[in-house]
Design goal:
By secondary structure, the chain is an all-beta fold. It is 0% helix and 49% strand. It has a 4-stranded antiparallel beta sheet with strand order 10-7-12-13, with no helix packed on it. A 3-stranded antiparallel beta sheet has the order 1-6-11, with no helix packed on it. InterPro entries: DUF6941 (IPR054221).
């Protein structure tokens, strides 16, 4: 699927979830400055919300690879320590954008956009150095779709 047929949204929030009906609940959305605890070296808890919408033509692939990656100011993937060793902040998912068809519900017309919501929760924060900017980048089949930038301020 070509990225020219897709659009995306990514934002940082205090809390995000998608309910059983597929509705997105966002609390404290639009964070640009992510606080941190100098004693633990961890950022404040946060969530990343990603929405990818694609057009689905009559005879085209209906699935695509969606990747969400945290990069530094040089565009390099951020690596954080973990008990298992260094961990690149990269999340991949193959998404099928076709609509779920149920017999009792009329399907949308052919060509109706397909959408997918992805939520990444970091309830303990991340060990990111202060005084730095970072960017969550969303890729659709390896093409940049959208991004959001944030800053982790340190103590003066």
């Amino acid at each position: 699927m070509s990225s020219s047929t897709g659009s995306g949204t990514v934002l940082i929030a205090d809390f995000v979830n998608v309910d059983a009906a597929g509705k997105v609940n966002i609390i404290g959305g639009g964070i640009q400055f992510l606080g941190s605890d100098p004693e633990t070296g961890l950022t404040a808890p946060f969530a990343v919300y990603v929405n990818v919408t694609v057009s689905i033509p009559l005879f085209d692939e209906t699935s695509a690879a969606v990747e969400v990656v945290l990069v530094d100011t040089d565009g390099q993937p951020v690596v954080v320590p973990s008990p298992e060793g260094p961990n690149i902040m990269r999340f991949n998912q193959d998404v099928d954008f076709r609509h779920t068809v149920r017999p009792e519900v009329q399907p949308p017309p052919m060509g109706f956009p397909g959408t997918s919501n992805i939520v990444l929760n970091f309830p303990g924060g991340l060990p990111l150095p202060t005084g730095s900017s970072y960017e969550w980048v969303v890729l659709l089949d390896e093409s940049r779709l959208c991004s959001t930038t944030f800053f982790v301020p340190g103590a003066e």
